[in-house]
Design a protein that fits this description.
Shape: elongated
Helix content: 40-55%
Number of helices: 17
Strand order of the largest sheet: 8-9-11-12-13-14-15-16
Bound molecules: ligand C2E, magnesium ion
Strand content: 15-25%
Largest sheet: 8 strands, mixed, barrel
Radius of gyration: 31 Å
Number of strands: 17
């Protein structure tokens, strides 16, 4: 400041406190690289750290591991206890995971319930396994969220460095593939990435793509396997078994694609197609029953009763001749709704059969709770007949159960005359298997029904 004469008077300054701006900027910087909920590194920072790790592994010729950690059924916690509880759980999980790691490791949160760990300076694979086990066990300890005690588990997929990817994106992708595998193998477990996992995943994706088109392109076909009334020595009904006639793959067995259809939800459409086709095909064969397999996934999704009612109305099939086969795995979850739907189906006149009896966890308790009309004894017990196993005793016991509960007993997978004789003597009502007839196309079935073979008559 100068006076009118031009002489220097001193300085005047203005000061602004920009602490808050700086802080805001720092916070913005922080948030661009961190997760707001847990303050852990986010995907951006994880990518940087991964690049550093990749460079370091190459430079120092050491190993590192990328672990994708995902909580199992986190959605259930969110849905039942609310998002606040979900957030609290995530924060606590983050703390526990952090406590498992060393200073030089990185823990990032990359999604709702997804964390990624970079384990550096790894001596051997055993060290990675050890960390994975520790992570699984700390997550399994109960969490106290407000007044609730919450139990969760985690699944882990692991990619190793060097080897499982030279760029960060690839590494994460491969760890994710391994995570998928861990999840599908029962959760609460970890899996290392293997090269053919990727190949298998690609093959599965291709199968899924093709299956979507199969219905439209009319590549699906039904085979029918006769079921024999052992007393009368005649065909009592047929079971519809789906086949996929793929232009390049040839005939694909349901064992190879029903699982894919179930995982992708395609089973709903496929199941409706099978029922509609079968009712149309068998409608004219007035003196036999029609059995159709229902997938557990269809039952879990609901809408079975409506589907059956619609298709019966549409095709004019007599519901008294319809039987639905279900395996017991169906009923493990959400049994009440499934039971109600099955009762509905029974009210229409159809019957329910328990398929593959004896192969699941709690066949007997299901017999008690579900309105079954028939038990199909699994092939494995029939195979045992005449051998040293307990097949014979089990078959007799199941026939006894059927008698006292008023259920029909059908034996699956009968391949020899000896098995057939035993079943007849044991009082088994019905049998199905290669001994009598293999599954066959409709045209062949028509011939088979017109000219019953000699094997049908009582042995
Ligand atoms: P499942 O319902 O227990 O069907 C019996 C399976 O045993 C059929 O295999 C049949 O071909 C086979 N089989 C019959 N007799 C014998 C025998 O004497 N010896 C031997 N070794 N096998 C015999 P397939 O057709 O490969 O079907 C396998 C499974 O796929 C079925 O088991 C069923 O659970 C499922 N499936 C088939 N079609 C459908 C469908 O349309 N929908 C649903 N959801 N599942 C289906
Ligand atoms: Mg069946
Ligand atoms: Mg079966």
């Amino acid at each position: 400041v100068v006076d009118p004469a031009g002489a220097f008077q001193g300085f005047r300054g203005t000061a602004t406190d920009i602490t808050r701006e700086l802080e805001a900027e720092r916070r913005a910087q922080f948030l661009s690289r961190h997760d707001a909920l847990t303050s852990l590194p986010n995907r951006n920072m994880l990518a940087e750290r991964l690049d550093e790790t990749i460079a370091q592994v190459a430079r120092r010729r050491e190993m590192a591991a990328v672990l994708c950690v995902d909580l199992d059924r986190f959605k259930d916690v969110n849905d039942t206890l609310g998002h606040g509880a979900g957030d609290a759980l995530i924060r606590q999980v983050a703390e526990r995971l952090e406590a498992c790691l060393r200073e030089t490791d990185t823990l990032a949160r990359v999604g709702g319930d997804e964390f990624v760990v970079i384990q550096t300076a790894v001596q051997d694979v055993a060290a990675v396994e050890l960390l994975a086990r520790r992570i699984l066990s700390v997550v399994e300890m109960p969490f106290d969220i407000g007044v609730e005690r919450v139990l969760v588990t985690a699944s882990i997929g692991i990619a190793m460095l060097p080897g499982d990817g030279a760029i960060s994106g690839r590494l994460l992708q491969n760890a994710d593939i391994a995570l998928d595998r861990a999840k599908s193998e029962g959760r609460s477990t970890f899996r290392f990435f293997e090269r053919d996992m990727d190949a298998r995943l690609q093959a599965r994706k291709a199968l899924e793509r093709d299956l979507r088109l199969a219905i439209v392109r009319q590549e699906l076909e039904l085979f029918y396997q006769p079921k024999i009334d052992l007393k009368k020595g005649r065909v009592s009904g047929v079971e519809a078994l789906v086949r996929w006639n793929h232009p390049e793959r040839g005939m694909v067995s349901p064992a190879d694609f029903i699982g894919v259809a179930e995982e992708t939800g395609l089973i709903v459409e496929l199941g409706a197609w099978v029922l509609r086709r079968a009712c149309t095909d068998i409608r004219g064969h007035r003196d036999i029953e029609l059995a159709v397999n229902l997938s557990p996934v269809q039952l879990k999704r609901g809408g079975i009763a409506e589907m059956v009612a619609d298709i019966i109305a549409e095709t004019g099939f007599d519901p008294d001749r319809l039987e639905l086969e279900i395996t017991e795995s169906v009923m493990i979850e959400g049994a009440e709704a499934a039971i109600a739907e099955l009762r509905h189906v029974k009210d229409m006149g159809a019957r329910i059969a328990m398929d593959d009896f004896g192969t699941g966890y709690s066949s007997l308790s299901y017999l008690n709770r579900f309105p079954f009309d028939k038990i199909k004894i699994d092939r494995s017990f029939v195979m045992d007949l005449g051998k040293r196993g307990n097949g014979a005793a089990i078959v007799k016991a199941v026939v006894g159960i059927g008698e006292s509960l008023g259920m029909t007993i059908c034996a699956e997978g009968v391949e020899t005359i000896e098995q057939r004789r035993f079943l007849e003597q044991a009082g088994c009502h019905e049998a199905q298997g290669y001994y009598f007839a293999k599954p066959m196309p409709l045209a062949q079935l028509t011939g088979f029904l017109a000219e019953p073979t000699t094997v049908l008559a009582p042995a």
